[in-house]
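Quick one: co-fold with iron/sulfur cluster.
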Amino acid sequence: MLLKKMDSRFRGNDRMDVNGDRGMNALTVTYALLFYAAVAVFVLGLAYRVRLYARTPAPFKIPTPPAPITQGGVVLRMAREVCLFESLFKANKWIWLFAMLFHAALVLVLLRHLRYFQEPVWTWVELIQPFGLYAGFVMVVGLAGLWARRFLVERVRYISSPSDHLMLALFVAIGLSGLALKYGERTDVVALKAFALGLVRFDWQPLPAEPFLLVHLALVALLMAIFPFSKLLHAPGVFFSPTRNQVDDARSRRHLARFAAAFDK
Amino acid sequence: MAAPTFTIPALEDDLAIPAIAEGAMAHSKPFVAKPEHQEALGFPGQLVEGWHDKAIAKMGDLLGKSRALRVFLDSCVKCGACTDKCHYFLGTGDPKNMPVARQDLMRQVYRRHFTLAGKFFPGLVGAKDLTKDVLDDWYAYFHQCSQCRRCAVFCPYGIDTAEISMAGREIMDHIGMGQKYSNEIIAKVHKFGNNLGLQEKGLRATLASLEDDMEEATGVKVRIPVNEKGAEVLLVTPSADFFASPHIEGLMGYAKVFHQANISWTVSSYASEAANFALFVGSHEQMHKIALRIRQAALDLGVKRIVFGECGHAWRVAYSFLNTLAGPWDFLDPAYPAPQHICEVTYDLIQKGALSFDKSKNDDKVVTFHDSCNVARGSRMGDMPDGQFRIPREIIKACCNNFVDMREDTIGAKTFCCGGGGGLLTDDLMELRVKGAMPRMQALNEVIKSHGVTHMAAICAICKSQFGTVMPKYGMGMDMIVSVHQLVSNAIRIEPAQATASA
Ligand code: HEM
Ligand code: SF4
Ligand code: SF4
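Sure, here it is.
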């Protein structure tokens, strides 16, 4: 309700400077540049990686069972892997549970954040707002479960490197700083939205100088920047995994790759 | 490296996940290939000068050729879902036998040389250079992977450790650190057409004596033709089928099926080997060369169909790769898939009512079925999903009255490897083979106790040889392991030959 009221202030005049007293400053410029840089690294880095995956040939048919025998079957299989973590469910119920809590919550949280970049806000984005809020807690719980395994399960401890802990720390820190914005000192959401919209429209608006907010935003920028260079590549990777995205039709359709074409000469 | 004595794992009531025992299998290394084995395949004879740079260069080359390798090395999140899925980890407790840790042996070097994170923050992301110690780890642990793909089924991204260990072996071959067992055998196939070095004369003599044995036992002359031009079917079978039990009994089964169905067939002395060991060492060039022998034999003999005998890795290469490697098969009869598995042939004939069985001939047995890893997870049979699991079982049930399956999480797509696949079926790896067989032995022991199982059938030459060797170590008889077509051979009703087109 409060939100609606605040959002309505943008409708008539979205250029209105709601924080007229603060004005443009070095902080705003720093964060604006930080975000442009982070987004650039994220988008270009990811595009480079995806291009690399797409261009590297898959020499043989190597789908794992139960392998679909049609392209439609592959689409369904991929949907089950991405939305339900089907294979992980077969493997380990605890990891599955925590992974599901974390990722599902992450999706909701990300969707909830869309409202900062829209004017007017889409109806469905408004509808999920209350769920998105709980999702913040759920996300942290899921992360805590995954992190606990890295200490408690001997085998998982053995395979964890510092970066695996830091990655979880980063997500937890983003989650907690985000929750602090909501439940700690209340942030000036209106000003924040103006800042976000300003970034999108290349018409910078001042950023409220609140410590938790600055931490939250800096960590998100960091996350975007490391995404294309870290294990977060599992997100695009799963779609390119030959054991999961191939049709099981090796006998009926000749699978050819560059290397095999050379054999035919 | 004398084979150390070791304790044979006890078979517990449940398959427990072991506590990790660092370095428990660090000593397990197969014999390194001698210069003559290496050079026969065009690889350097021994560890080359500047091996480090050459290994990294080869790795870069492979990364550019295999999407799987690239995606798998990038994508692992260290979730740990695969850590308890490998039979070698379950049997040894060595943490480097956890699939993700095995991959990490390569991933650490990949990160160091091919990723920004590993170049700038090696300690943070666990990146390491390829030192001699790391290379030794590669040799030890890439030869403790039977490339069975069980881990790949459970990984949320389908990361297949087999692809990594194949690439690792390919890199090591290129710097002169190949494995004796596999490379020696590959050279034999190039020279003789089979893994055993069996030549045409010997082959003919062996098969003639088999024909005599069958005639003596059944009173019917069942033929095993060699190099017969114009036969309808070329049978390509593992060379073990020509000389050792229980493989031979399987071959007799195929012969009786062809005989009774009145299908003319032949084996080829030129392509007298179904197995393609080049798969194990990850060499596409060698795999291609071996596969071409089959194409050549099919063309020379003018056959219309190609049928593979019971052999797991062979069937993976046949079903999944042969079309790519040696196709197109447009000169064969399009009414049949190319190639076909002998189980598909037998199953189709059973469906058509062309075969009949006296099941009571197998009444002395309670049979279970071991899904061979490469059939289960690297191929399929028939035209339905999961045919590779259903078809062999349907055949067994058609010729046996007593059939029981083992525990659900140890069969089908989740089957355990026998412990000897992927180029590890060699005496210099005996400790690994015995310990790696433990999960299968444990599941078998359960049905022995609960259902009085007396025999385990398999459709893979490696499985059969491996079980024949390791079962006695677990207090089971080596004759418990049988060929599926041995059961067929026991029960099938055969009649004297009708007039056939090709004599
Ligand atoms: C296609 C979409 C995605 C799929 C299918 C997917 C799937 C998974 C799975 C199955 C795991 C392993 C279980 C676990 O440890 O949680 C995992 C881990 C992880 N995912 Fe994702 N994910 C996706 C997208 C993302 C995105 C977009 C992010 C972050 C922005 C992310 C962050 C993480 C992190 C940090 C971990 C590691 C957790 C740990 O250290 O234990 N994922 N993901
Ligand atoms: S492929 Fe098989 S042997 Fe190799 S790591 Fe995976 S489960 Fe173990
Ligand atoms: S299951 Fe897959 S992602 Fe998880 S640790 Fe194993 S290889 Fe890595």
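If it helps, Residues 200-218 of chain B form the longest helix (19 residues).
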